[in-house]
Structure formats: C-alpha cells, structure tokens
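Exam revision sheet. Question 4 asks you to relate a sequence to its structure. Input first:
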Amino acid sequence: MSAAFALIHAQAASIFGPIIPGTTGKLGDAPIISNNTIGVTYQAVLPQSDTTAFTGYITATSVTNGTGVAFSANFYGFANETALGPFLYHIHESPVPPDGNCTGAGAHLDPYARGEIPPCDPAAPQTCQVGDLAGKHGNITTAPFQAR
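Answer key, structure tokens:
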C-alpha cells in the first residue's frame, strides 16, 4: 500500500468510520462508460467573491480512448486546513443556484444509491458515489490543492 493510498484511507476512516472493501450501491457498481466523445471538456469554476478567498475549478475531460473521464481538481485560498480540514469535495445533483446557497445544489450525485457510510474505497472507485471526488482522489489537506 502506498503512503498516499494509506493517507486517503486514514482520512476517510477518521470522518465516516472504517472503509469496508467491496461495499457497493444498492443498485450495483457504477459501470465503466466507453464510447465517450473524445476531447470533450467540462469545467466547474468557483469564482472569486467578496465573502471568501476560496476559489478553484474542477475539469472533467473524456480520455483519448473514449473510456471514462479524467478529473482535475484545483482549489486555492483555504482557511487553515489543519484547524478546519480535511475538506471533502463532491459533484452534486444540480448546479448551485444564482443566490449562491449551496444547499440548493441538492444531494451528492449518487445514482446507484451508494450512500456516505462506510467511506468510499479509492482502490475500487466504481463502488463509490459517482460524485464522490474526494473519496476517489483524496480529501483536501493542503493549500493550494491539486488532484488528478
């Protein structure tokens, strides 16, 4: 087990309890999607605001063979992450509404009814909530934070 993998396991375990390998959603695992249009990119931007220094973006790009999607997360301007973190990050069911109230984005994207507990196993990302990027790529523990 790599040090990074062990760290991700330890962080997840400290938040939601131990990882239980093989846990899957009530509707099964997320399938591997192939035949994606190659070169398509979507980006979610967290713009600067008057109320926080937190900014960043998440980019999703179809990979060159058309199977799966590559995510890149870049976040900046955190509060003191040792005092307040580690931070989790997810894709939600809906966009944040114009009023900026994040609760309007709904639940985490979870079409296979995986749920939050036990934590996602990064060694088996197909068993995670579809929108659980922290579970698949690690919690935010540094500033700036980058994950692929």
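Marking note for examiners. The radius of gyration is 16 Å.
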